[in-house]
Predict the 3D structure of the following.
Amino acid sequence: MAQSIEESKNQAREYIKLTQTNVVKLAGTVVSNYQSEPKPKMKDGMLIMNEAGEPTFYAPRSSIKVAFTGGEIEIPITQAQYTTTKVGEMYLFSGRQGIIKSFGNESVGVVYDTIEEL
């Protein structure tokens, strides 16, 4: 009887893992990459200057377009990921569903945390 209780606990753990999991994986080939020009920071229509009197800029936005079986998707990436990913190479993207902030708006979407070359 002790073994059946332990089996029941294991089944319950597996069920909880399956129903409470927030994991997203996507394998695909990078078909293009994009990096925007840095935009100047402004307040009340005036450029924001640093201590040296030079204008300050927002970091450029980087993204890659990934082709996978069934479609394509554009994935926002960090500057470090932009420099290490290569067009034409295949990668495994791992992440989770999370809140994405874009231009002051929040939405739920996939946040890819790791990119692994295949």
Observations:
- Residues 22-117 form a domain with the OB fold (Dihydrolipoamide Acetyltransferase, E2P) fold (CATH 2.40.50.140).
- Residues 28 and 71 are 10 Å apart (CA to CA).
